[in-house]
Amino acid sequence: MKAKTAQQIAKEWRQKITLVLIDSEDYEAACRLLLAAVMRSSKPLSCIYLTTGKPYKTIRAGLVKESLDSSRFFFIDTVSEHCDDLQAADNVDCLGDSRALTQMGIAVSNAIFKLKGERILFIDSISALLLYSPPDVVLRFMHSLAGKMRSNEIIGIMVCLPKDYGDVATRLASFVDDVVQLK
Question: What is the pTM of this model?
Fold first, then answer.
C-alpha cells in the first residue's frame, strides 16, 4: 500500500475504484481536501456523495469552504434524522438510516441515471457503515456498489479508517483497483 497526498490521488484516480485509508485525526478535513482535489483535477464531473457519517448540511458546508459548486453533486444522506426540509432539494436523497443498505443501493442506482457525463461515487465512509452492519454484510454491499460502478463506468473513491475493523480493508482490496493511505 502506498501513502499519497490528496493531489497525487487526484492525478491518478481516473477510470478506477480506489480505497482510500484516512487516519481518524483530521478525518473530516482530509475527506474534504481529497474530494476538492479530485473535483478540481480536470474536466468537470458530477459526484454522487454517499454520506454515512455526517449529515448533508455538514458535508455541504465543507464543500462551500472549499468553493466547490454543490450543483455538481447528488447527495445520498443516511444520517439526517429530519429529512422533511431536505426533500425539497433536487440533489439530495435523504434516507435517514445507515442500516438501510438496500435503499442505499437503490438510491445510488437512481443517482447514476440522474447524473450525466463523467461521474464519481464518493463513499464516506465504510467505517460508519460498519457501526450498523456486520463486516460481511458491508463487504457484500461494497462489492455490489463496485459492480455498479464498473458496469456504468463510474469512478469510485471509497473512504475507510485503516485500523478499526480487522481485515476489512484487506478484503476490500480484493475488488478495488488501488488502495492508498492518505498522507
Answer: 0.90
Q: Is the dihedral of CA 81, 85, 87, 93 positive or negative?
A: negative
Q: Whose CA is closest to 143, among 163, 110, 168, 124?
A: 168
CA terminus-to-terminus distance, the chain: 12
Q: What is the pLDDT of residues 141-166, one digit of tens each?
A: 999 999 999 999 999 999 998 876 66
CA distance 165 to 135: 8
DSSP 8-state class, residue 91:
T
Among 30, 28, 32, CA closest to 182: 30
pLDDT band at residue 98, thresholds of 50, 70 and 90?
confident
Residues 88-124 as b or e (16 or more Cβ within 10 Å = b)? eeebbbbbeebeebeebeebbeebbeebeeebbbbbb
Max Cα distance, the chain (Å): 42
Nearest-angstrom CA–CA distance, 121 and 49: 6
**CA 23 to CA 30: how far, in whole Å?**
9
Domains for the chain: give ranges and CATH numbers. Answer: 2-182 (3.40.50.300)
